Amino acid sequence: MIRPTRTASGIAALALALTVVALPLANPAAALAAGSLAVFLLWRGWRFERDLAAIVTSLAADRELDRTILRQGTAVTVRVRVDCTVPAGMAIRARDLPPAVAVGDAPSVLPGETATYTIRLMAPGETVFTGVALEAQDAFFSRKIVCRRHDAPRLRVFPAGTNGNGRGRGATSGEIEVNRQTAFAGQSVRGFRPYQTGDDPGQIDWKVTARRDAYYVRQLTGLEGGAPLIVVDLPARTGDPETNSRFSMAVYGAVEAAIASRDGCSLLVVAGGEIVRFLPRTQDIRDALAALGGLAPLEPRAPLYRAPGPAVLAARARVPRNGGGPEEVYRERLGGILSAFAKESPVPFAAAVRRALDRADARELRLYSLLPAGDKSHLVQVVNEAKIRGMQVVLKAPAGTIPGVDAVEVL
């Protein structure tokens, strides 16, 4: 709504005074003067609104940010330039409006000037700028208006991680406690798994064991460190957009955290039995984001539908030598045959993964996947190649698992 300036208020007061004089005295000159002043104010108001509409139509906002994918609470610098056509006799000031979840304000500038300010995004998810606020004024009227259509670019904010107490406890509560890798102080415990024959009884976590009524052991992180290999299995086009968004945020968060450390990371992006992108050992966040390519859903063009590698095939067919009977001997021989067959007939995907693992030279593989229904043999191939090299494999998925992984974290 337009507001009158002091000049317009004075003219309105004069018109009112003339009206008060004209009515009791029946003075035509005073009535004519009051009416002329009222018509003049109406015309100036109409002209002000017309000029303001032309300004809004010509408005253009150009924003530049340090990055558009960031962690919750991280500061980001915004540079914005607002341009518009300003009619003669009118003064315009523009102010950028940050996202609703942001902390920080932008200064008011004249059209054509560049404003620089810093904000912090305090809530995770996808968000956009609120728009541009304009303050227009001429000699008679003023008005503040917000242009909502100028909201680019879109920002993606992922949650900030939390640290545990380092005492071997699981997650907070519920079914996601088991088999979840949790961040602990000192990186002493990486997760939990069911107890297996031969495990060290000293690694049994009695708190988790009591809750699950089954033995669970703590999995310790390695002491050697090193840059991890992050493998991303692209989601399908038919997936849920909200699930895909959470998946993308988890991947971006892991990549930024790895690059923020001293070691950096390697990236391997796959879609079915096909390597889409590979970036070995990088500490440049821009190169990493370019390699991820926005994590756009992609339908696999080369599904494998293939049995796992030689180690898994042999384990399926081999049995312990208890009595050395014919069945045990037969299964042991079958395991050897299947293992040899798998070694002699590798698929191109497995060979490409093998070369990528050699170049990455990592001790830990973090596999991100939504584990869609259907063929998962390409993921089993990746895990098999990693286990052959003695790598620790951590699967990060919404639900489910695949053979050979050492720990599972529920996204």
UniProtKB/TrEMBL annotation:
It comes from the Archaea. InterPro entries: DUF58. Residues 192-301 form the DUF58 domain. This is DUF58 domain-containing protein.
